[in-house]
Each structure stands twice: as C-alpha cells, then as structure tokens.
Amino acid sequence: MNERNLIDALVGRAAADAKRFREQNGDAEPNERWLDNSYTAALPLAKDQSGYDPGLGPHPHLFEIYRGEVARLLGIAVPREATELDRAQGDELVQEPTRGEG
How far apart are CA 43 and CA 57, in angstroms? Predict the structure, then answer.
C-alpha cells in the first residue's frame, strides 16, 4: 500500500463530503472551518480504507488535495486560507453596531 491509495481514498471522501455539503447547504460555499473539520474526519477514514498511514503530522499536501477536490466538485474557487484574525474570531461573522448605537 502506498500514498497513492490514500490519496484515492481521500478524494473519494471529498466527493462524499461535497455531495453532502451541497444537499445540506444548497448553493452556499464551505468556509475554512468546515473544510478543516471535514478533512479531520475524512483522513482517518481514508487511512483505514487505503491501509496506508503516512504517520503523524499535519500533512498539508493531503489537506490541499482534499480541499481542492471539494472546491472542484462544488464548482467554486478554492477557499482562501483562514487568517489569524479569522481563527481568533472563530471564523464567525461579527455584526458591528449601527452608527449612532452603543
């Protein structure tokens, strides 16, 4: 078993995740947090399916493959990488008070 088998399994997981995302969210686009969480869940499943474990580590090249495949299947641009400010804010929208309030 090798990394190619793992990549094939990960691409299969990306296809299933993209399909589920579209069914649940219509035409919305996934944010970086959704991609991170989905990849985190998909990687162990792909490892089990492929019988290949690349060992400990973040494996950014595998994340980029997963992320790119999800974007391709959803017909969107590859989402930008979250900034430190996004992470600090929990990738959530923050509503500013209307001028004259507060």
Answer: 12
Read off the tokens for 79: 């989402």
Contact status, residue 22 vs residue 72, Cβ threshold 8 Å: no
| pLDDT string in tens for the chain (102-residue length) | 599 999 999 999 999 999 999 999 999 999 989 999 999 999 999 999 999 999 988 899 999 999 999 999 999 987 665 545 444 545 444 444 445 544
The 10 Å Cβ neighbour count of residue 48 is 11
Q: Are 3 and 54 a contacting pair, CB within 8 Å? A: yes
Write the DSSP assignment of 41-66 as a string of letters: HHHHHHHHHHT----SS--HHHHHHH
